[in-house]
Amino acid sequence: MFPISKKPYLTSAQQLTHESANAAQQAKPKRKADEVWHCREYWTGDSRDGQFTNGDGYHYFEMKGSGMIVKALEYYETDDGEEHSSEVPELIGINWFEFFGFEDDELLETVPEHEFAYIEGLIKKN
């Protein structure tokens, strides 16, 4: 007769996957609430400026570690290779995690500050 355990039984493959998932969670850096970082998320649909329909691009954010959005930009490139960027003022001042209902930043891709600055600079060119 096998002893009854209150812990779920995991096969070796499940255990390895479970341990890998835990290690990945632990390896993910935690940001301080006031730490500023730059990131982007992918979007599809129509651009805010109405010039680009049924396309795709990125929303770029400068945000605090807590998720509070400091700056928000929309970026897309036309089929002809022309780059466009615009501000998204309605997202400034909201908490990304609370507003969109996510517990972590898995959908956000960290970008270097110079990339964010380049996208921001496109606004002045347009």
* Number of domains as seen in the coordinates: 1
Radius of gyration: 20 Å
Helix count from the secondary structure assignment:
3
Low-confidence stretches at least 5 residues in length (pLDDT < 50)? 1-28
Task: Give the termini separation.
Answer: 75 Å
Largest sheet: 5 strands, antiparallel
Number of strands: 5
Give the DSSP E fraction (strand runs of 2 or more residues).
25-35%
Physical arrangement of strands within the biggest beta sheet: 4-3-2-1-5
- The portion of residues assigned to helices is 25-40%
| Average of pLDDT | 77
Q: Which sequence of SSEs, written as H and E, runs from N to C?
A: HEEEEHEH
What would you note in describing this structure?
By secondary structure, the protein is of the alpha+beta class. The chain has one domain (36-125). It is built from three helices and five strands; from the N terminus they run αββββαβα. The chain has a five-stranded antiparallel beta sheet, covered by helices on one side. The protein is globular. The N and C termini lie far apart (75 Å). The relative contact order is 0.16. The model is unreliable at 1-28 (pLDDT under 50).
Sequence-ordered SSE layout with sheet pairings:
Elements: H1 12-27, E1 36-45, E2 55-64, E3 69-77, E4 83-87, H2 96-100, E5 109-110, H3 113-125
Antiparallel strand pairs: 1-2, 1-5, 2-3, 3-4
